[in-house]
Amino acid sequence: MKYLVNSREMKLYDKNTTEHYKIPSIVLMERAAVSFVEELRRQRVDTSSVLLVCGSGNNGGDGLAIARLLLLAGSKVTVVLLEDGKKASPENQLQQQILDAYQCERRTEIPAGERYTAIIDALFGVGLCRNLNGDYKSLIEQMNALPGVKIAVDIPSGISADSGALCGTAFRADITITFAYEKIGLRLFPGAEFAGQIFVEEIGIERHSWLDKEPFVCAMEDEDLAFLGERIAYSNKGTYGKLLVIAGGINMAGAASLSAKAAYAAGCGLVRVVTPEENRVILQSTVPEAILSTYSAKNPEEACLIEAINWSDAIVCGPGIGTSRAAEQIVSCVLKNSSVPVVLDADALNVIAKDVSRLLRPHTELIVTPHLGEMSRLTGDSVSYLASRLLDAAGEFARQYHVICVLKDARAVTSIPYGRTYLNVSGNPGMATAGSGDVLSGIIGSLLVQGMQPKEAAPLGVFLHGRAGDVMAEQVGKRGLVATDLIEGIRKLGKKEEMRKKS
What we know:
Layout: E1 2-5, H1 7-20, H2 25-42, E2 49-54, H3 58-72, E3 76-81, H4 90-101, E4 106-107, E5 118-122, H5 134-145, E6 149-153, E7 175-179, E8 182-183, H6 191-195, E9 197-201, E10 217-219, E11 242-246, H7 253-265, E12 270-276, H8 280-286, E13 291-295, H9 302-311, E14 314-317, H10 325-337, E15 342-345, H11 347-352, E16 366-369, H12 372-379, H13 383-387, H14 390-401, E17 404-407, E18 413-415, E19 421-423, H15 436-449, H16 454-476, H17 483-502
Helix pairs in contact: 2-3, 3-4, 7-15, 7-17, 9-10, 15-16, 16-17
């Protein structure tokens, strides 16, 4: 697991390092510059002719130090410092003086007609919180128009470190070399589109620098798949849990099939599908491994639902069930009678949107998995508003209704009420396909019945879902990726993890 930080956290950790641990800021700046240049070499960036555009803050100071190191290494270096140097930060002023001593010329605008092998952006750092216009906007547009590899120092200028929002315009980097921790804005859209490849460099700001303020956001990594555990020799299907999947309305049998098959692929021992009678033949054909219980689409029997609920170790409710009166009855029955963890997905959320206070009544742990449209119906906020504040929206909903909220977008956010927030960085655009969410609900349900706590199963399920998409995109491409491919991807990841543990 890795941590991602916002601008306030990064400034605090920087301050703690310099004030509490007495490491001078200029030392951190020098370490940043050295690590930046070393990463350029590792990535084999052609630095024979480099343009560095620097601001007056410490991000600009990093850029000036980088310019000096490249100059001493034999690069042809052109430095552009737009603002009056006297207004610069103390560290920036010192770097200017050092660069002047090495007789490196500084300019106030990009020379016309010059060609560069690399363009390095050190104009603004994580503290930018206003729209760029005038000379700054023009300068960034000039930089973007130049040929050559484009590299950002810490974060592309014009991208909010907190939200990934575009501040009017932004530097479009091929590579971003950031320091200490990834910034949240590098992973959220549209910031992620401007960051290019991201590399994190250690400069001396680490866990000790937190003091008592741990980063708010973290992200799962491949090493976290170790939580999936091993299959034990002396076991049976009951060992790996019983998942109840209540899914699939008339003409929506695929939702139930995908969720159930994903649950099995993720390691569940036994899946029971509750679905309308009309889906019987389809489900028996597509998921013969599942136990099947059917109901009348007009009037589901509560006693049968309660029996299935009591049988289970966890429940997935909602994929493809519709919003009919029968769906209302099913969702109400699940909320009223469940004593095991419940994943509420898709149409279950559309049903609940009519009276969201129902989420406060159950005496069990709930995981809700809305996409932005469903979240809009649950909260009354517009999709665009929610998209601009994914982390806050998920966190507020989780705390208000005491649920684990998985807010799905190009970057899914999992918020644990009064706990951690996870920003998922796995997955790809090929997963924007019908049935992908049904697969996710099955994965999370599967992890729950195998003994994982809801606060672990939700973010790990989201990460596993995305990694399965990445694995299969490499094989079939993004354009043709479909939900059933994700199920195969889960199996491939499971096999890879088994092989890793044996080695």
